[in-house]
């Protein structure tokens, strides 16, 4: 990471020098007989390395607080192929298929979506029940101790017990994540966002990840961290989808030989969208919210049929969860039981709001935006600190344990010093009321907030009657929980940020509501602080994650009441606008810090200066339609370039005529061809008669072996290989003059991985990939260009 | 219409003869000096006309019941340009604009969306209030007469009064639609769907249309037809959006000189989406539903920022409506007043459902699907009848009046013979209880259903306590209203089908609920028929219009309760699946019957047989980069071809070298160029020094004059015109071998209007337009090809 090169160019106004600069990089069109040029992206890097980095990058001269990795894109992330590879084999298969086959496929898709929903619902159910059981056991034991020792003065024993229990849970949770499957850390939402965007995050949708995620999150929540289980549920749904839709598991070494048609990135992505939606649906009981989440965070091309399948998966997921939870709650079949609504139902009578409150809601939204920005900024610095200094797995586990210990200590201290005693009611939301130093028949209100799973605390803040919490309790709780949650997010444990955000917001929202009560009104307008708790929760969550449409629907569905739809929208919209003024959303920050080549919705506004000629990689490594095996092996083995797509060219007539583009072939396809030794000479000599089929490619998907694992003998190196049948004969192309926004739109709308740039003779002059587009982004001073780094 | 040619080819299996047939159509690449080929699509038609139509079309031999226009696509519909025309002028403008200008534009967009929402809300408010006042006055007068004459036996006078009042309303409503603005007929949703799909429906977003639509719908509803005001509200929102975003009105001859940047199809479409969403939002009080409606019915490329703007417009629209309605209802500022929820709020306590009811809901969904299919089939035949025999405006007005008279008579008869007397309660939903022959203190239940605006009837069916209606009343009402609504949809009045569908469904749903009550249960499970009324309404509406996701959200928002979300989804999904088995949705039927070249979401499944070579129009009329004015005028004036896009080619070197594609220019641009006489010679001689700017194109948008209105003298004809600056230098291209699904995907995802097909030398060989793609669709026996017809 130390010798990375950062390049920053000011685009303010003078485009001409840049255009000239780019001209130099252009393909020089050598007419020699050499079959390929083998420089690729390295040319750019070479150019830069000739000059000292200081000359190139004024940013490095001043002692910048921004770390270098933020101005770089990592080359370690590969892209997914969301554009179908329509080669001859594929077209032949499609043409063989009749109307009925397509209908069967469609039914299969619906069936798989149903299965995804069902399994996701089951997993959510498992997480819910295990968290409840584990946390219940823990709180039960501690409560017993506290009740026993409060009078005796031995509270420190309870405190130590609490801390030790939490530490134990978190240690196990952190160890399985750090040592077994690091990609299971965090909420998983940024990873799913990247996946749906088209970036291949290694191991993100594997079965092992799922198992670690599920047990990790159960331990994290039971371990009393300031975390939620919702993000991991979404990730779990996505993994389930990826697994089910492929009909096999590499982890289990099991191939059911079904759903083979769906073994490609395009189809898999569709199912993963459905899985993520099913996850949201199970996490919040919000099927429509789930669909919108998938669309807002992932989709680019909206397809009606796909949306309906996603919707179906979401529906089944909520249904499954509700059904099993109704059994668990002993109310078999009562699907509309209010207990199934996550944050408790807001009854219609108590939820009135008036025009006069709209400005208040907007103010709350703004406060949420600011607090969210503060949260994100602190977490941003923390994450950079972690990237720099907390690499080692042991350190990561220790940090998680430290946070667990601090959480327990702080909570205990807060409860201990709290003087907010409330009379004990029978119908109250608390399951573990702590009496502590309160009089008999009373309980400690601070303990309600801390001594509970975060979900229950949110519920209590929403629905407890006025007067349940006093100002000081809420203020202190907000403050502590804010910093705890902020510190916790990004730890090497499996945990989400939704519920902590809601909890922080609910606390200060309720505080806000109580404070409003000090203003005298005629009609007891501010009677219900629960309403403000909800708005605060929305504002805080919106300020942190910056979703609007999907979050509105999720919150409406999770509270079981649409009356607040309009104010929630207003609050979320305000929080987003205010928050965006300061810093990005939390997920986007984490994506950026990982240097992922993430493509946003649109090209930067001021990027019309740039054309395909400037952004493309050039010259391009290409193959002839019939290419020597040795050449192919050499190119694929070259470690300096790690190209994944190669244009295929053909020489139309005489030897001096230019080579025309005639197709595009992927590294993965070439690997399969080499593995099966589909060489022209050998076919002729009868050594390899079997014709390669689409099935061979599907069997190898998605984990194609590296080129090093394929042995090619010296004899074989002299053979030729005919790529005609396997290449995509109709890759999308653009002329060199195409503006960046136009290239971007084509790339994003179709989910491309490679876009060939051709001149007016249809000769290949460059190749645009995701990284070439993701490099340009809007900085504070206009368009900025990120550097590229090898992992 | 009589001499249209229909071509039907069976694609089952043997693709070879077709491919050969297509080869003949290929561009023969004449190397002569002629600057353009001027045959285009006609070549196909010519080929077909040589053989007798009977040979070509086996369908015409048997007396087919299917009319020919259904197998044809009309050529009268032009397309919209949803792909930005990135010519030099545009790029220069974009490059001149700084970061701040783009930010200002973005703020402008938000402002416009807010304005759209506000105005749409106001219009909805106006419609609501006027309908209520007019219908209230009407029912008041009639009730007075009925009450007065029931004892005296002169009921026929009341009956005549009722019929005459209705006739008067409908006559005016039909006349303004038929004679002033025919495009204002119907619900407007199919037209908006087409618009968002990219088809230019003439006059659909004009101010005049808006005015006629608004007054038309007020009169239709007040006139007692079986119609709703929701569809027209959606259309109104779209018109408002189109008007506001352009900053001018051609009808009013007023140009505010603002928002000039937005004067192109791409931007306008975005605003129209927002307007349609705002319309839904105002019609049902469903802002999220509105956004989903816009996406489900229109969008292809999902853009997050755009979605948020649409969401904002929807939100403002509901807000405005609620605010003004709260003033109208005398409860200023009470925005969560249950009276503002369209179909009345379902209170949480009464809305429980159980697992055992899920199968019942699914059965209801299936019934809804079947009934919807019956409705659509009847309306389909009716529409064909209307297209064939009810052309004349007078006839159309008379049909509308006939329906009005029949509606009144049937309603009256039903009420008259009804023996369903119910005790009068104070808290009942009815505003105009009719006593008729019932005892004192009782009222006629049948009259509640008929003697009310449809909205109020729906509300009553949803919320009246058990026992309000008896079986016979509901059965008869369902039957009559079904046929009335079916007859009414498609009349030349401005009216929607949402509310009548809901009403039919609510009636049979309630009937279903009451019948369930006959089965003995232990726990009074079927106590509330209102729940079944809601499910029936959802099923019926879903069976007719076949929306799922957006309709679920709309119904949830319009009933103010999310508990029913899950069952509503199930019902809608079932209704869609069952209904789709029989016939398309109502809107799609109407779109198809209008022969609109509508592009669906995906290419037909079995269309991999086809490649760009077969679907493209060829040979193509093209221009040289510097072209003679006379040639341009001649081509544009040719009536036989009405091309709108022309590839621009350039001769690289020697005269015998092939012409390479270098751009694409539109008819509209050429017209503006001709109008401003931007000729090379004239510029040189100093006659036309002013350089053409983007503003000139924007001023002419969207009603470019016809070529006939532009006078070009004989001298000018000899001048040359340089197209370099004005053409789009980077049109998207595909090779000839590209499969139809791939072409389709590119076309649909990017909202293209023309797609140039090139050979491997980058020479133009064909042009694919919307009609070429829309021609292929899945018929009952596999892929079918529609013919093209000139209007």
UniProtKB/TrEMBL annotation, chains A, B:
**Which Pfam families does its entry note?**
CBS, Voltage_CLC
MF term (GO), any: chloride:proton antiporter activity
**Membrane topology per the record?**
Multi-pass membrane protein
Q: Which domain of life is it from?
A: Eukaryota
Q: Where in the cell is it found?
A: Membrane
Instruction: Answer yes or no on keyword Transmembrane helix.
Output: yes
Domain CBS, which positions? 727-785
**What CDD domains is this protein classified in?**
CBS_pair_voltage-gated_CLC_euk_bac, ClC_6_like
Naming one, the record's GO cellular component terms include:
lysosomal membrane
InterPro entries to which the protein is assigned, alphabetical = CBS_dom, CBS_dom_sf, CIC-7, Cl-channel/antiporter, Cl-channel_core, ClC
Membrane-crossing ranges are 107-131, 159-180, 210-228, 271-294, 306-328, 358-382, 394-417, 471-491, 497-520, 532-556, 562-583
Q: Where is this region: Disordered?
A: 1-38
Family in the record? Belongs to the chloride channel (TC 2.A.49) family.
What's the protein called, per UniProt? Answer: Chloride channel protein
Source organism phylogeny: Eukaryota, Metazoa, Chordata, Craniata, Vertebrata
């Amino acid at each position: 990471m130390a010798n990375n090169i950062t390049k920053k160019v000011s685009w303010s106004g003078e485009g001409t020098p840049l255009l000239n600069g780019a001209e130099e990089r252009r393909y020089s069109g050598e007419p020699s007989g050499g079959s390929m040029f083998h420089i690729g992206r390295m040319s750019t890097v070479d150019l830069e390395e000739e000059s000292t980095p200081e000359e190139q990058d004024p940013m490095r001269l001043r002692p910048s607080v921004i770390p270098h990795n933020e101005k770089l894109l990592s080359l370690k992330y590969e892209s997914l192929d969301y554009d179908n590879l329509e080669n001859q084999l594929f077209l032949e298969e499609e043409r063989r298929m009749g109307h009925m086959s397509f209908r069967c496929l469609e039914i299969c898709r619906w069936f798989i979506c149903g299965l995804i929903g069902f399994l996701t619902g089951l997993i959510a159910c498992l997480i819910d029940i295990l968290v409840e059981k584990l946390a219940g056991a823990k709180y039960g034991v501690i409560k017993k101790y506290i009740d026993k020792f409060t009078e005796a003065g031995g509270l420190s024993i309870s405190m130590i017990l609490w801390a030790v229990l939490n530490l134990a849970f978190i240690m196990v949770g952190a160890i399985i994540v750090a040592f077994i499957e690091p990609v299971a850390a965090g909420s998983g939402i940024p990873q799913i966002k990247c996946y749906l965007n088209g970036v291949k995050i290694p191991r993100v949708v594997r079965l092992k990840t799922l198992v670690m995620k599920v047990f990790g999150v159960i331990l994290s929540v039971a371990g009393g961290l300031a975390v939620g289980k919702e993000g991991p549920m979404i990730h779990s749904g996505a993994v389930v989808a990826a697994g089910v839709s492929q009909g096999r598991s590499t982890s289990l070494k099991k191939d059911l030989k079904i759903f083979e048609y769906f073994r490609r990135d395009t189809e898999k992505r569709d199912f993963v969208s459905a899985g993520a939606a099913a996850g949201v649906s199970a996490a919040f009981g919000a099927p429509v919210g789930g669909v919108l989440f998938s669309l807002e965070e992932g989709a680019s091309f909206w397809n009606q049929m796909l949306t309906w399948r996603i919707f179906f998966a979401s529906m089944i997921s909520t249904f499954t969860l509700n059904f099993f939870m109704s059994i668990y709650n002993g109310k078999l079949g009562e699907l509309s039981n209010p207990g199934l609504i996550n944050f408790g139902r807001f009854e219609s009578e108590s939820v009135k709001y008036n025009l006069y409150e709209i400005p208040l809601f907007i103010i709350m939204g703004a406060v949420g935006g600011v607090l969210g920005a503060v949260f994100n900024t602190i977490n941003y610095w923390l994450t950079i600190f972690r990237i720099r200094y907390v690499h080692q797995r042991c350190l990561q586990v220790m940090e998680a344990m430290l946070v667990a210990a601090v959480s327990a200590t702080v909570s205990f201290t807060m409860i201990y010093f709290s003087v907010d005693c409330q009379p004990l009611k029978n119908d109250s939301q608390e399951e573990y009321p702590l009496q502590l130093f309160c009089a008999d028949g009373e309980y400690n209100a601070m303990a309600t907030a801390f001594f509970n799973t975060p979900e229950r605390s949110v519920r209590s803040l929403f629905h407890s009657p006025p007067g349940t919490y006093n100002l000081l309790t809420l203020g202190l709780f907000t403050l502590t929980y804010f910093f705890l949650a902020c510190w916790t997010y990004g730890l090497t444990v499996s945990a989400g940020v939704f519920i902590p955000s809601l909890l922080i917001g609910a606390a200060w929202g309720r505080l806000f509501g109580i404070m409003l009560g000090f203003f005298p009104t005629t009609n007891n307008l501010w009677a219900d602080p629960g309403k403000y708790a909800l708005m605060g929760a929305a504002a805080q969550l919106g300020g942190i994650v910056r979703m609007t449409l999907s979050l509105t629907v999720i919150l409406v569905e999770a509270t079981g009441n649409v009356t607040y739809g309009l104010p929630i929208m207003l609050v979320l919209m305000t929080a987003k606008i205010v928050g965006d003024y300061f810093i990005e959303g939390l997920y986007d920050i984490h994506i950026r810090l990982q240097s992922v080549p993430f493509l946003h919705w649109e090209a930067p506004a001021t990027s019309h200066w740039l054309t395909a000629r400037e952004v493309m990689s050039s010259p391009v490594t290409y193959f002839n339609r019939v290419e020597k095996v040795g050449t192919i092996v050499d190119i694929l083995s070259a470690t300096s370039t790690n190209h994944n797509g190669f244009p295929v060219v053909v020489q139309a007539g005489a030897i001096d005529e230019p080579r025309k583009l005639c197709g595009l072939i992927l590294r993965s396809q070439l690997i399969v061809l080499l593995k099966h030794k589909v060489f022209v000479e050998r076919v002729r000599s009868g050594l390899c008669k079997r014709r390669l089929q689409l099935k061979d490619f599907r069997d190898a998907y998605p984990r194609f072996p590296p080129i090093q694992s394929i042995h090619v003998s010296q004899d074989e190196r002299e053979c030729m290989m005919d790529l005609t049948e396997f290449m995509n004969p109709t890759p999308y192309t653009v002329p060199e003059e195409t503006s960046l926004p136009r290239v971007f739109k084509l790339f994003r709308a179709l989910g491309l991985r490679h876009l060939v740039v051709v001149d007016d003779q249809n000769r290949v002059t460059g190749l645009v990939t995701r990284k070439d587009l993701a490099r340009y982004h809007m900085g504070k001073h206009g368009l900025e260009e990120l550097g590229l780094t090898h992992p």
